[in-house]
Design goal:
About 40% of the residues lie in helices and about 25% in strands. It has about 400 residues and is α+β, with helices and mostly antiparallel strands. It folds into 4 domains: about 10-40 and about 125-265, no CATH class; about 50-115, Orthogonal Bundle (Arc Repressor Mutant, subunit A); about 275-340; about 345-409. α1 crosses α13 (about 365-380) and α3 packs across α4.
């Protein structure tokens, strides 16, 4: 199903290996369960405070003032003026009597108004959709509400995704068959800034569950190893660029069931579980494009690497595209890396990729991070921006030279 994720699996592997400092060993295409929850709530319009109203409510909220007499005395105002303002604030639902002695207290709407510095009025009915992950029932942040960049699949979409040549496999929610109302209650009790980040602004009060259904979020999941640990990195439509999605990566590393699903996918025909079979398959893939010598070996961490001479890369008579040097070739759920020990060729590739990468880099810090990632990918970690600029100038790449001059200015 084309377009489920805006970048391909190879870019996810490149980020895992050269952006996250991991050794990737397996990649699966999964559909994560997401609770799509419809809620109904009261929502309040807001408007600027009248000056006296603002100070009266602040005095009640923060100054311990409770009566018309106390407010008038503290601010040095006429009691008739204060009484009139208090009556108005009661009429719009900001104040209510605390007891029979004339003491006043702020309502929920009044407290919200004091916190935000805006006077909330006119209660309306609001209906909105909220998303929670299907494993822990935690609310998903604002990035998942950015349509059409993020697309959730319904049952019909799942059926299509499973019939593609590179299918996505749906994962059953581990949190149960029913959405827990306590998850909505927890979101409602979050501080205002956190609520906003989860599509529930502070002025939306008392959300009530109306309906909940399960949708699915496409993801590439990379099993990876670091020096001191193992885990998973997830890549979804909601991530920034082609970087790992921190929310789903954390979930994947917390649930061993996901690792089991990935292993089953490797053995059931979507991948090749035999290391010797993988090596033979990698050789066949290369020999279809290059007939010379190739060394295929499994390195530390289990990553299969094919090392080729410079002449193996594309010429008029064929060969592998230079874009594969330092990168990966997908073979179902497994993959191998393409490498060449010739530093001159790798420097040439670095310049070509930098031309495209630095079109979007507007700051030296961002460019430095991009160059570091490219350097790790091509075994050229020592190359700095000034050295890259000198390389570009020597190679006659005027556009890249101008781009680097701007970044280094």
């Amino acid at each position: 199903m084309a377009g489920l994720i805006k970048f391909d699996e190879v870019r996810a592997l490149e980020d895992a290996a050269f952006g996250q400092g991991a050794t990737p060993t397996l990649l699966c295409r999964l559909l994560f369960p997401v609770w799509s929850v419809t809620v109904e709530a009261e929502i309040y319009d807001s408007e600027p405070y009248a000056l006296i109203d603002r100070y009266l409510e602040a005095g009640i909220a923060n100054g311990g003032l409770r009566t018309v007499a106390e407010l008038a005395g503290f601010y040095g105002l006429d009691r008739v003026l204060v009484d009139r303002a208090i009556r108005f604030l009661r009429s719009i639902g900001h104040l209510e009597p605390e007891s029979g002695d004339g003491s006043l207290t702020l309502t929920e709407v009044g407290r919200m108004s004091v916190r935000t510095g805006r006077r909330y009025t006119h209660a309306l009915k609001d209906r909105r959709r909220l998303y929670f992950d299907g494993f822990t029932s935690r609310p998903l942040p604002s990035a998942y509400y950015e349509e059409p960049a993020v697309t959730f699949l319904d049952r019909a979409g799942i059926a299509t995704a499973m019939t593609e040549s590179l299918p996505f496999t749906p994962v059953t929610a581990f949190g149960g068959a029913w959405f827990p109302p306590s998850a909505l209650e927890s979101l409602d009790k979050m501080p205002a800034p956190e609520r906003v980040q989860h599509n529930l602004p502070e002025q939306v009060l008392r959300p009530q569950l109306v309906d909940a259904e399960t949708l699915f979020l496409p993801a590439y999941v990379v099993r990876a190893h670091w020096n001191d640990r193992a885990g998973c990195l997830a890549y979804t439509q909601a991530a920034a660029g082609d970087e790992a999605d921190p929310d789903w990566s954390r979930i994947c590393s917390s649930f061993p069931e996901i690792a089991v699903i990935m292993e089953v996918g490797l053995l059931d025909g979507s991948g090749n579980g035999d290391p010797n079979g993988r090596e033979a398959s990698a050789r066949r893939w290369i020999q279809e494009r290059y007939s010379g010598r190739v060394d295929v070996a499994q390195g530390n961490g289990g990553l299969l690497t094919a090392t080729l001479p410079p002449g193996a890369f594309r010429t008029e008579s064929g060969g592998l595209p230079l874009s594969k040097l330092g990168s990966f070739v997908m073979m179902g759920s497994w993959f191998f890396r393409v490498w060449c020990t010739d530093e001159a060729l790798r420097r040439r590739v670095l310049l070509e990729r930098a031309e495209g990468y630095f079109k979007v880099a507007r700051e030296a810090d961002a460019a430095t991070r991009l160059l570091a990632k490219l350097g790790r990918q091509l075994g050229l970690e020592h190359v700095s921006l000034p050295e890259l600029r000198a390389m570009a100038d020597k190679a006659g790449k005027a556009r890249l030279t101008r781009q680097l001059d701007l970044l280094l200015a």
